[in-house]
Design a protein that fits this description.
disordered N terminus, mainly alpha, globular, 68% helix, 84 residues
Length: 84
């Protein structure tokens, strides 16, 4: 069971799961973790809000988080918020 969890991307530590994020997904989550709204992230990256929602949803699924608080917790563990 544990082997299958590791292969599927579920389970394991957060850094191993985080490696599965695309560069854009990580960029979106970093901005969200810093407190940007979806609309602000979209404006910053010059894409639509729908695109941001898609990136965010995919990334949250990969990280197995279900809220903005979960994104912030992941960002803290990953060291994304240090020095800001």
């Amino acid at each position: 069971g544990k082997v299958l969890l590791g292969i599927s991307g579920r389970g394991g530590d957060a850094s191993a799961r985080g490696a599965a994020l695309s560069d854009r997904e990580e960029e979106v989550l970093r901005l969200i973790a810093r407190g940007f709204t979806n609309k602000e992230v979209a404006a910053t990256l010059d894409v639509s809000v729908k695109t941001i929602e898609s990136h965010k949803a995919r990334a949250m699924e990969k990280l197995d988080v279900d809220s903005r608080a979960g994104i912030v917790a992941h960002a803290i563990r990953a060291g994304w918020l240090t020095g800001t």
